[in-house]
Amino acid sequence: MMAESRSESSIISPTDIATDTSSPEPGWRARLDLIIARRGERSVATRRRHRGPVYVQRPLYPERDGTAHIMLLHPPGGVVQGDEIAFDIELEPSSRALVTTPSAAKLYRSPVRASRQRARLRVGAAAQMEWLPQETIVFDGARAENSLDLDLACDARAIAWDIWTLGRPAANEAFNSGHYDGRLCVRVDDELRWHERTLVPGAGESAFQKARWGLNGARAMGTFIAYRPEGFDETVTADIRRQCAEHDIASGVSAVDGLLIVRATAREARLLQAHCHRLWQSLRPLVLNKSAVVPRIWAT
């Protein structure tokens, strides 16, 4: 059963949780469909439908231009064997939204069936999208699939990142078995502009994590993407490279078909998360023509 909120000031109640029983496989089939539209001076949620334990909190408006700051919630806190979670978010023309999460996503051990997490973001004409979630933690033994699809109108503007970490370094847990399959795809007016796939096997099965031709011992990896119709020149990419070097972040920076791509690795996810925050604060004025306003949840 689908539950839809009727007011931008409401939050979907936990009593609306429904389990998808259409699949013979056990596990959650959770999905959130969200549409943001411009209404007067604000961007508001005109549709919020969910299936399973995924919700969206009431939008906040800390900026004068009416940008909706939206927090996605997943009360179970993690994805186990056989679970599938999907976020489908659409920004209608001229709307503006910043989407984040209160905590890291967790992909737990899954000995037999893979767990899946997917986000599809569609950004309409002259709309502005910021996809800034916390990192994804891939537990030892996980068989995890994670994908991010960003579909942009040619005059849209966007900043997004995808950050993940292998194992739990703070608990001295390595990623010895299982695999992580990450995909990221960007289209502009239905034309493919960027596609990457990262497949990481457990350390007990491959030398990829430690080899210099692989992750070279890094435990966290991320991709930062910015898009604006005007593109990015060498001055911008040189400045981003300088920032990466100043903070000792191993990275590659490219400007491709209107996209700015930063791919980076680090010893820990917190270092990479902090680096992406700095890049966002630096690039937001250039990409969105406004200074950075930090989401409230980041301060807690």
Structure description:
- It is built from two helices and 18 strands.
- It is mainly β.
- It has a domain of 190 residues.
- Strands 4, 5, 7, 8, 10, 11, 13, 16, 17 and 18 form a ten-stranded mixed beta sheet that branches. An eight-stranded mixed beta sheet has the order 1-3-2-6-9-12-14-15, with no helix packed on it.
- It is globular, with a radius of gyration of 19 Å.
- The N terminus is likely disordered.
* Terminal residue distance: 34 Å
Give average pLDDT, whole number. 86
Taking the sheet with the most strands, its summary is: 10 strands, mixed
Number of beta strands: 18
Order of helices and strands: EEEEEEEEEEEEEEEEHEEH
Sheet/helix structural class: mainly beta
Low-confidence region ranges: 1-24
Strand proportion: 35-45%
Radius of gyration: 19 Å
Per DSSP, the total helix count is: 2
Q: Tell me, what's the shape?
A: globular
Task: Tell me roughly what share of residues is in helical segments.
Answer: 10-25%
Keywords summarizing the entry:
mainly beta; 300 residues; disordered N terminus; globular; 10-stranded mixed β-sheet; 8-stranded mixed β-sheet
Give the arrangement of secondary structure elements:
Elements: E1 3-4, E2 29-39, E3 42-51, E4 55-56, E5 68-73, E6 84-91, E7 96-100, E8 105-107, E9 115-123, E10 128-132, E11 136-138, E12 143-152, E13 157-166, E14 179-188, E15 191-201, E16 220-227, H1 234-246, E17 250-256, E18 259-266, H2 269-288
